[in-house]
Write a structure and sequence with these properties.
The structure is a homodimer. Chain A is mainly alpha-helical. In chain A, 47% of the residues lie in helices and 5% in strands. Chain A starts with a helix and ends in an 11-residue tail after the last helix.
DNA sequence: CGCAAATCCTACCACCGTGGTAGGATTAAG
DNA sequence: CTTAATCCTACCACGGTGGTAGGATTTGCG
């Protein structure tokens, strides 16, 4: 599994907040209830989003969270990257400039690099706005036969 | 991480055997030494490949393994699927006909389904032959700007 | 026939990431 | 000054990952 609940729930929170854009600060309790997720667990996840600059928060009564930017200014890749740490499908891929010691002679590396590219390209092309608008063409394909089959 | 060492080493073994196609049966000890991997660990992985019909084996002295088909008749998806069990990037995606209970109302599901498609399409289009021939265009892109960027 | 070289099979295990829970400290509105 | 909210630190069970160990079985060859 490439994306754990941490990344999935983070995206769920971001989509929830994107839907409520303009409603001011939304409390974590509200989000957790709406999405039917553990508030305590969500707390640790939303903390990552907040520290990563994805959100604005307000403490105290009437406090909560809201998006720091417009929904179409977030791409999915950056949200998942922040929460998951990496989106690499294998751990033998170059990260932070450090590559596998066998990289020069490894015959399977180009495959993993290509897979990594495909994933990154897909996720970085989709925004929160696409998700709340249900942009099926962009999400599920038909616009590129080689990327996403038409069946 | 989507693909563990199990899947990676399985592919390494398959590529190794594809390179030696026509040389008869190749012993596990030879493969392990050539690829610099633990023979004991490789044993458990090659056993999955063998039982899954990917290989032919011969026991006893002068025994070993060889490919059951031609290198261009294996796509990478089936090799990884056999060893990893699933290639789904998240565990909330439909598997064996069973889908998440929240599927009907989940706003993020189309994203995960789209990601799954992109991955599956990439991996099922590449064969062992492509890897041993170092088919960079197919592996790393340039043939589809939306799938794999040109940088 | 018997040895050696190979696959095949079962069991075991340490480590770490996942998916949380618990409890309290701090802040701000009214 | 109470209440509702974020913020922070610590803890923990479980299962998957990445192996290791030891032997049983099969087959080629001299």
């Amino acid at each position: 599994m490439m994306v754990s609940t941490k990344g999935r729930y983070a995206l769920t929170v971001m989509v929830d907040l994107a839907r409520l854009e303009g409603d001011g600060y939304v409390s974590l309790a509200d989000i957790a209830e709406r999405e039917n997720l553990s508030m305590k667990y969500l707390e640790s996840i939303i903390s990552i989003l907040n520290k990563g600059g994805m959100l604005q928060s307000l403490r105290g009564k009437k406090g909560g969270y809201r998006l720091a930017r417009k929904p179409d200014e977030y791409n999915i890749s950056e949200i998942l990257l922040l929460t998951e740490g990496t989106l690499a499908p294998v751990n033998c891929i170059m990260q932070d400039g450090v590559e596998c010691e066998k990289a020069a002679t490894c015959s399977t590396l180009p495959l993993w690099a290509g897979l990594d590219k495909v994933i990154e390209n897909y996720l970085s092309d989709i925004t929160l706005e696409d998700i709340i608008r249900g942009n099926r063409k962009k999400l599920l394909g038909d616009y590129c036969g080689t990327c996403v089959s038409a069946n």
